[in-house]
Design goal:
α5 (167-190) packs antiparallel against α6 (197-210). The chain has 688 residues and is of the alpha+beta class. The model has no long low-confidence stretch (mean pLDDT 96).
């Protein structure tokens, strides 16, 4: 926010009155903890900050007031708030109080100006100022900015779970966001002059608008079939659909001019700033027995059961391209030997096994005897749990499974585990291991039934009980569960973004997330309404744990979100066991999982320089490159490490004369060394 020019963050949660046990609806302990307590909130690197200020009366404390009623109700309401401020020893001479009438999206009160005028003429103190949020914060900063405390950490929020009332659309929107970010860099690599700022802006707008606030009408659960409700959801869903269509068009416009589906020449694009090896999938329009790299090595080209082909692209240059040729010759490279039994798979590097009755993963190892898997209710990793109601103690799992090996080497081995599942027509769990890979890929395909009674779906990930140190992806930075959470945080579930990691001194497992980012510590959420009159009890604290759940579906909200959801939904994960935790490995593994290599049959004359540029320090990563109409490029660098890092750019296809460090505005030679703080983020405007 700070780097985007945002200095102030005004939070106005819903406010339901002082007699509400939490002051607001589904806000947990946030309002009581942060209301009327302005702070400087710093970024993980400590280099940026915003003035964060949550109004104790939220946005809605004047709900129910009709136009003009402020003359009657206002004086007593103001006096009561003043008494609260005095009782709470509020230390500042200014306070923010949002004013609204009637209800959400209510009309303007045309009498408020006259009320304020009369009040200020009558009373010496307090003075009421009708103001904009910008001006309020600016004035407050000038008067009290030096007095307010500084905090650093995560205020884990409470409202995200509404998003999983429409899990299919939510998952697609998250994937679309990752695709659009990757496409920005791909345009910089392949055709920067074709980059259309306006079209990218429109696609981003649709992604953000789908994620804006709530999903539907106030009566979405009580009258789910009335046109007022269904039409609001149609409009909301359309943002996701429009964004997806725009991204597909942007991708097609970039790649189609290069493509020839009948070509034997294959280009593999790597949008990461480090050399990558990984699988790429090609459509079934190609044919061949092997794939030849630029050095003449002929590698395995495997035809998949669905008719497509897959091969392992090796050492694809950073921010660059490698080309291959389809061959009818036999592979010359040695193939990886998979070991497959009736309930286990190994590629020689890592291996896993599953329970033949319930299908959960019961062992995961990485070349040693240590089992990274623990247990929950006699099941292992990726176990299915359906809560028919609000009590997690009543969670039920799937029935007996049927196993089928879909692919059996040499490039990839894939196992399908199919069963019935409560709340659904069918559950298929697809486990995939590639040759040489250090991670198991997991895809859960759930054919959901429409259920309007309260329900939730979770996938269990109980790790080895010794792995109790949990680190979570927090965007441009990481947070440790419990240690880095600020008071008032949600302890029932957290937002994992792309991954969470459980570890001890020399071992750990990174669980990577794609469609669904919500994670629950120790147990599934308890939504029973045990707090009078009808509210759930939000946890106040947590404890170290090695047991986590992926929280993927619910209909627990009483308003705004959908009453049911049905149809086929996919949830993708990866499990990567590792030795000692290394921040850069976490970041790179997550990027490779969420932004894969891109392969394309290209025209014979296609030619492209191998790499745009490289970094001299492999501990740093480029997260995006954006081309500008004037020929410049905006490069964003991130340091995932806990220590200061320095690097230089090694210019290749992209040659720079100089660059501007955006924060300082300093113009530097293209050979200059740049420094990033621990978990620091910097942007550079590159001039050719």
């Amino acid at each position: 926010l700070s780097k985007g020019g945002v200095k102030y963050f005004s939070s106005g949660p819903n406010f339901m009155g002082n007699d509400h046990p939490y002051l607001g609806d589904r806000v947990g302990h946030f309002v009581r903890t942060w209301g009327d307590k302005p702070v400087w909130w710093t970024s993980p690197s400590g280099e940026e900050k915003v003035l964060f200020w949550a109004g104790a009366k939220g946005y809605s404390s004047w709900h129910g007031t009709a136009s003009g009623q402020v003359f009657e109700r206002g004086p007593k309401k103001i006096a009561a708030y003043l008494e609260e401020l005095i009782e709470n020893k509020y230390p500042y001479e200014m306070v923010q109080w949002r004013y609204n009438i009637v209800a959400d999206n209510g009309p303007i009160d045309t009498g408020i100006s006259d009320f304020v005028k009369q009040w200020n003429e009558k009373y010496a103190s307090p003075k009421i100022v009708l103001n904009t949020t910008d001006k309020l914060f600016e004035t407050f900063e000038q008067k009290h900015g030096a007095q307010i405390p500084t905090v650093k950490g995560d205020i884990t929020p409470y409202w995200e779970d509404g998003a999983i009332s429409t899990a299919e659309e939510e998952g697609k929107n998250r994937v679309n966001s990752l695709r659009l970010q990757q496409l920005t860099t791909l345009y910089s690599m392949l055709n920067p002059k074709q980059y259309d700022t306006q079209k990218f802006y429109e696609a981003w707008t649709n992604i953000i608008m789908f994620h804006e606030h709530t999903w539907g009408a106030h009566n979405s659960t009580t009258e789910p079939d009335v046109p007022f409700v269904t039409e609001q959801w149609r409009i909301k869903k359309q943002f996701m659909l429009d964004g997806e269509e725009q991204i597909n068009t942007l991708e097609k416009n970039l790649l189609q001019p290069l493509s020839n589906p009948q070509s034997q020449k294959i280009a593999v694009f790597n949008t990461s700033s480090w050399k990558r090896t990984g699988p790429v999938v090609l459509s079934g329009t190609i044919t061949g027995k092997s794939i030849k790299d630029s050095a003449g090595n002929k590698m395995q080209l495997k035809k998949l059961s669905n008719g497509n082909y897959v091969f392992l692209a090796t050492d694809v240059p950073a921010l660059g391209t490698a080309t291959y040729e389809i061959s009818n010759d036999k592979p010359t490279s040695s193939e990886t030997r998979f070991t497959v039994t009736e309930n286990s798979v190994s590629n020689g590097k890592i291996g896993f096994s599953w329970d033949k009755i319930n299908g959960s993963i019961t062992s995961l190892n990485a070349g040693n005897s240590f089992n990274y898997v623990g247990g929950f209710n006699n099941q292992g990793l990726n176990s299915y749990w359906y809560v028919p109601g609000m009590n997690p103690e009543e969670a039920v799992s799937n029935g007996n499974v049927k196993i089928k090996v879909i692919e059996n080497g040499p490039v990839v081995t894939t196992v399908s585990i199919v069963s019935d599942a409560p709340g659904a027509n069918k559950l298929e769990r697809i486990l995939t291991l590639y040759a040489g890979s250090d991670a198991v890929l997991v895809e859960n395909v759930l054919d959901k039934k429409a259920v309007r009674t309260k329900e939730a779906v979770h996938f269990g990930y109980p790790f080895n009980a010794s792995l109790t140190k949990t680190t979570i992806d927090a965007g441009y930075g990481t947070m440790q569960y419990l240690k880095d959470q600020l008071p008032g945080s949600n302890m029932d579930y957290l937002y994992g973004r792309r991954w969470l990691d459980v570890s001890k001194a020399d071992k750990g497992v990174q669980l990577m997330l794609l469609e669904m980012p919500l994670i629950e510590p120790d147990n599934m959420i308890d939504e029973r309404q045990t707090v009078a009159p009808k509210h759930k009890e939000w946890k106040k604290e947590g404890k170290p744990t090695a047991t986590w759940f992926s929280y993927v579906m619910n209909n627990y909200w009483h308003t705004n979100y959908k009453a049911d959801q049905e149809g086929t939904v996919r949830f993708r994960y990866a499990l990567r066991p590792h030795a000692t935790v290394k921040d850069i490995e976490m970041e790179k593994a997550a990027a490779e999982f969420t932004q894969p290599l891109i392969a394309l049959p290209v025209k014979k004359e296609f030619s492209l320089a191998a790499s745009l540029f490289e970094l001299t320090n492999p501990q740093l990563v480029v997260t995006s490159i954006t081309p500008n109409a004037d020929g410049t490029y905006l490069i964003r660098l991130f340091n995932p490490e806990q220590s200061v890092q320095q690097t230089k750019f090694v210019w290749k296809a992209l040659q720079a004369t100089s660059f501007i460090e955006m924060k300082s505005g300093e113009n530097q030679l293209s050979t200059a060394e740049v420094k990033l703080a621990a978990m620091g983020l910097s942007e550079f405007l590159l001039k050719k």
